[in-house]
């Protein structure tokens, strides 16, 4: 058993990880089992450097606000702004405070400084403008494509008419709406009208793309489309916030994953001629199997962004899940996947899921998380990963 398990594992390096991946991979999802642990972000940085220097990758997308990330991308590609500024304003979920994220952005900027534009690394966020307290208001996302289109087309809506529909921004971001659907504006007549406007603006962007890209640039068109896509997603999410059905929270999870998948799809399309993309997020956002959770006594199920984008990309999508052994007094039992992997000699290892399955002579039980921030890997679904990265002690 020990020899077979060791045959399934290698000491972790970027090259050891990519050896498990298909040469056709265009999007590599690298998951983390919990947020806020620098060891996983440092590992991601190491992987990304290897991918850039040896595998032709030219972009990274992380679980952060897709619109805020535009400022980070402008800094790493062209030096616009300052490192302090983009770390404080270019990330959501508090991720800008991470030293490893700061190291990543600094390294990307340094890498790009001596390279022509077509070789420069790009930075993306692929989450929506969503925080635990609720979604952002739709005004910034919707007015950006309106302004872009109004410079070239006659539109049916003026900026003043949109402002009347938006009303007060504070009403859209009322934190009470997160738990009380009656506090949400998402299904008011004004919100429904804005959803139609967002849909029509996106259609105009598509219909007039040849003229618009020639009059501006492909990059400006892409940013306008990103804003329009985000506006439509936000308005759908606000409508979900106003839902009074028991399935409300599950619906919101589905809508968020769909927004993430749409963003990843657009990123892969934009980067198609430049190279593959690394996507970094929680395992639950990138896994291929269905996600499960109990919330307020209700069983919830939803498909992740990785599962959704995987249906589009097929074998061009690869997923590497990350997990860990000990975290202080939280030591995994020996009958769990993490307990078994803790017997490996490597402080960090990459495991072949197929060889791991062949090495098992007993059924493993899922690890019970010590707190709500961590979701353990399900041993029954490891066959849906392309690789497992294991960190023995965090």
Summarize, please.
By secondary structure, the protein is of the alpha/beta class. It has 17 helices and twelve strands.
Describe this structure in words.
There is one protein chain. With 394 residues, this protein is α/β, with parallel strands linked by helices. It has two domains: 2-57 and 261-393, EreA-like (biosynthetic domain) (EreA/ChaN-like  fold, 3-Layer(aba) Sandwich); 134-244. It is 46% helix and 16% strand. It contains 17 helices and twelve strands. It has helices at 2-8, 14-18, 38-54, 69-78, 83-89, 99-112, 139-150, 159-166, 169-172, 189-207, 209-215, 218-241, 248-270, 283-286, 305-313, 337-341, 353-359; strands at residues 9-11, 27-32, 59-65, 122-127, 130-131, 134-135, 277-282, 291-295, 298-302, 317-326, 348-351, 387-393. The strands form three sheets. Strands 1-11-12-10-2-7-3-4 form an eight-stranded mixed β-sheet, sandwiched between helices. Strands 5-6 form a two-stranded antiparallel sheet. A two-stranded antiparallel ribbon has the order 8-9. A hairpin with a 2-residue loop joins strand 5 (130-131) and strand 6. Helix 7 (139-150) crosses helix 10 (189-207), helix 7 (139-150) packs antiparallel against helix 12 and helix 11 (209-215) crosses helix 12. The longest helix is centred in the middle third of the chain and has 24 residues, at 218-241. It starts with a helix and ends with a strand.
């Amino acid at each position: 058993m020990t020899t077979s398990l060791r045959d399934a594992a290698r000491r972790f390096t970027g090259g050891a990880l990519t050896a498990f991946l298909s040469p056709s991979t265009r999007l590599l999802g690298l998951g983390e089992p919990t947020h806020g642990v620098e060891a996983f972000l440092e590992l991601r940085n190491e992987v990304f450097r290897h991918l850039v220097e040896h595998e032709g990758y030219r972009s990274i997308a992380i679980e952060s606000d897709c619109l805020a990330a535009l400022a980070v991308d402008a800094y790493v590609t062209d030096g616009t702004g300052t490192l302090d500024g983009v770390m404080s304003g270019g990330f959501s979920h508090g991720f800008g405070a991470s030293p490893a994220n700061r190291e990543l952005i600094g390294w990307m900027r340094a890498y790009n400084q001596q390279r022509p534009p077509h070789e420069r690394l790009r930075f993306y966020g692929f989450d929506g403008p969503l925080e635990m307290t609720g979604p952002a208001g739709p005004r910034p996302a919707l007015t950006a494509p309106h302004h872009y289109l109004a410079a070239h087309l006659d539109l049916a809506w003026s900026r003043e008419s949109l402002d009347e529909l938006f009303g007060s921004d504070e009403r859209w971001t009322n934190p009470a709406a997160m738990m009380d659907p009656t506090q949400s504006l998402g299904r008011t007549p004004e919100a429904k009208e804005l959803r139609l406007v967002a849909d029509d603006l996106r259609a105009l962007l598509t219909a007039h793309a040849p003229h618009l890209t020639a009059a501006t640039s492909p990059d400006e068109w892409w940013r306008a489309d990103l804003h329009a896509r985000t506006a439509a997603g936000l308005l759908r999410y606000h409508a979900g916030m106003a839902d009074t059905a028991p399935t409300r929270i599950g619906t919101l999870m589905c809508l968020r994953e769909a927004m993430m998948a749409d963003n990843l799809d657009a990123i892969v399309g934009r980067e198609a001629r430049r190279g593959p993309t690394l996507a970094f997020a929680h395992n639950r956002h990138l896994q291929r199997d269905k996600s499960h959770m109990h919330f307020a006594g209700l069983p919830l199920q939803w498909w992740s962004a990785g599962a959704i984008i995987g249906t589009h990309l097929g074998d061009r999508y690869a997923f590497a899940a990350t997990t860990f052994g000990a975290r202080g007094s939280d030591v995994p039992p020996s009958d769990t996947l993490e307990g078994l992997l803790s017997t490996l000699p490597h402080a960090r290892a990459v495991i072949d899921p197929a060889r791991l399955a062949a090495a098992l002579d007993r059924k493993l039980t899922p690890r019970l998380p010590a707190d709500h921030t961590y979701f353990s890997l399900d041993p029954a679904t490891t066959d849906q990963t392309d690789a497992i990265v294991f960190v023995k002690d965090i």
